[in-house]
Design goal:
Chain lengths: 333, 259
């Protein structure tokens, strides 16, 4: 634990509290502009990509409405790329790119509107509500996260204290993560179903399967963070193994634990969504993605994807807040 | 007749490394009596730290005998017979200064009231009153090292082992801490084993100076200091002081030439 960041060396060190606040505000101003620029650039690229991606449909609609398009025969148009079609018919391609019912690539505002409609304008208990589906996925995610984190911490404690466990468990933990989750998820669900486990738990098991690993790796590193001098010092007090663990190893590992938890919760969410895909689940973000792709509802797919991303960001953010509070209470920040 | 605290008889310690055996200690004979202030001085690799670690049972000698308070070093360690101050303060950043000093007391199972009393007492002893609730990063390097000495003193062992505790500090801070350490030793009557590579520090602090040299690590000279127990800082300009310092320097040079 020598790498604690002392405020002495931090930005704004040596200035008073109010001056530090002023520095922070200025730093925010300096970072907001580049961040916004990147967001606007990405949105611009997205809109631009919509034109060739949706050109075939745009041109078809235009020709059906009696507008002259190039080339005239649909058979000639079939072999053309979206970009060529858009260049040949710039007017109709742009006009029809951003408002289709089932676009190949929905425009950002379409996704935003769908997100809004499926969260704010419908009851959160309705199965048309993204909030409802997000909750279904999140409950599996959180259950799996708790199982995975507990398992990860227990394994790490064992690995740090037992050479045998270090040599026998760690390779299997690594191997477990090399198996594609999409391949193993259906098997987990089938096996658990055959022993009578259904509902939220199979999904949670897949979440746990993905989230225990970063916790194991981070906690092993964290529990081994104390250096030889710190361990020698506890020997001079004739401290027991348990005392060494609770007074030194565990507090030393806290920053590592939080780093792992952030990766773990995101992995848990991926696990829960993947767990919903092969089962034909009727609820959850994964089910929403699946239904969207069955019926060609691209706008629904994209809004479910964004829903998942927002959920992951929120979960990581919550852990970040807990981390800051916990580390500050420990005097580490 | 004062009591034996440390007794080493033809002590050997050989580390086996990939490049062959390394003789960290060879044939070391030394006795330390209660109340002595013994300094170990010598170039790096002379085994001064290794000897201290043997006394603390952090290393196992490969030959000879070593007793601490009449026990084996490991028994003495388990009886919490000594406090050890490392080169780095090594305070836990998640504990306050008071919390750090409390650490050995918690481990050794002192009752809460006793912990409180001892923390307050040792903080006063090292002149850190009012810093109990500060975190280590809020203190200067010298203050952190004082806190680490307080931590080693808190459980009141009669023997204090110090491994270059002031090595990383500047000379001004070091002078003051030397003075404070000496007065602390004078007040508490503890036995001190002190590793250093500073000649003035060794001469100023010690009742006995053990000069060591490397390859193999061994004792080349043991100097009894004629200086009085009470030593103001300016004793370092006295002829006696300079004479002892000279003899230490000679011992170090002779050891280097022989090696």
């Amino acid at each position: 634990m020598t790498d604690n960041t002392a405020p002495i060396s931090g930005q704004g060190a040596g200035v008073g509290r109010s001056a530090r606040a002023a520095l922070r505000v200025r730093a925010l101003g300096q970072t907001a502009l580049p961040v916004l620029t990147v967001v606007v650039a990405l949105l611009g690229l997205w809109y631009l990509a919509c034109i060739p991606m949706n050109a075939a449909q745009s041109v078809l609609t235009a020709s059906r409405a009696g507008i002259e398009v190039m080339p005239e025969s649909p058979r000639d148009r079939r072999g053309m790329s979206g970009a060529a079609l858009a260049l040949a018919n710039p007017g109709p391609a742009v006009a029809g790119a951003f408002a289709q019912d089932r676009p190949r690539l929905p425009a950002p505002h379409q996704v935003a509107i769908e997100l809004w409609n499926s969260t704010a304008t419908v009851s959160p208990t309705s199965n048309r509500s993204l909030v409802y589906h997000a909750w279904v996925t999140m409950s599996a995610t959180l259950t799996g996260f708790v199982i995975g984190t507990s398992l990860g911490i227990l394994l790490a404690v064992g690995i740090v204290h037992s050479r045998v466990m270090d040599m026998s468990v760690m390779p299997w933990a690594i191997v477990s993560q090399t198996v594609p989750i999409i391949a193993i998820a259906p098997m987990i669900i089938v096996v658990l179903y055959s022993v009578g486990v259904e509902g939220i738990l199979p999904k949670a098991v897949i979440s746990a399967y993905l989230s225990f690993f970063p916790v194991v790796v981070g906690m092993v590193k964290g529990l081994r963070a104390p250096d030889a001098m710190q361990l020698d010092q506890l020997r001079t007090y004739a401290a027991s193994r348990a005392q060494t663990f609770f007074k030194l190893r565990l507090p030393s590992s806290t920053p590592y634990l939080f780093a792992s938890l952030k990766i773990g919760i995101a992995a848990s969410l991926v696990g829960a969504i993947v767990g919903e895909l092969p089962t034909g689940a009727v609820a959850g973000l994964g089910a929403r993605l699946l239904a969207g792709s069955y019926y060609g509802q691209t706008v629904q797919i994209w809004s479910a994807l964004f829903g998942a991303a927002i959920l992951a960001a929120l979960a990581v953010g919550v852990i970040g807040v807990i981390e800051r509070v916990a580390l500050r209470r420990m005097g580490l920040r | 007749m004062s009591t034996r605290v440390v007794e080493a008889r033809s002590l050997d310690l050989t580390f086996s490394t990939n490049d062959g055996p390394v003789h960290a200690l060879k044939n070391v004979d030394l006795t330390v009596d209660a109340g002595d202030f013994v300094s170990f001085i010598g170039p790096s690799g002379c085994g001064k730290t290794t000897f201290l670690r043997c006394v603390a049972a952090l290393e196992q000698p490969t030959g000879g005998t070593l007793t601490v308070n009449g026990m084996s070093p490991d028994e003495a360690r388990r009886a919490r017979a000594y406090g050890y101050v490392f080169q780095a303060a090594g305070l836990y950043p998640w504990r306050t200064i008071g919390g750090n000093i409390r650490l050995p007391l918690e481990i050794m199972g002192f009752p809460e009231a006793e912990r409180k009393r001892r923390v307050a007492e040792t903080l006063e002893l090292v002149d850190l009153e009012g810093f109990e609730h500060k975190y280590p990063w809020q203190l200067s390097g010298g203050m952190q090292q004082r806190a680490s000495i307080a931590r080693a003193l808190s459980f009141d062992a009669d023997l204090l082992l110090m491994d270059e505790p002031f090595g990383a500090l500047d000379e001004i801070v070091r002078d003051r801490l030397n003075e404070e350490l000496l007065s602390l030793w004078d007040r508490t009557g503890k036995t001190m084993l002190f590793v250093t590579h500073s000649i003035p520090e060794a001469v100023y602090l010690s009742t006995r100076i053990v000069v060591m040299s490397p390859r193999p690590g061994r004792i080349t000279d043991i100097i009894e200091s004629p200086l009085p127990r009470h030593r103001p800082l300016d004793i370092r300009d006295s002829p006696e002081f300079i004479k002892i310092a000279h003899r230490v320097r000679e011992g170090l040079r002779a050891g280097m030439e022989a090696a």
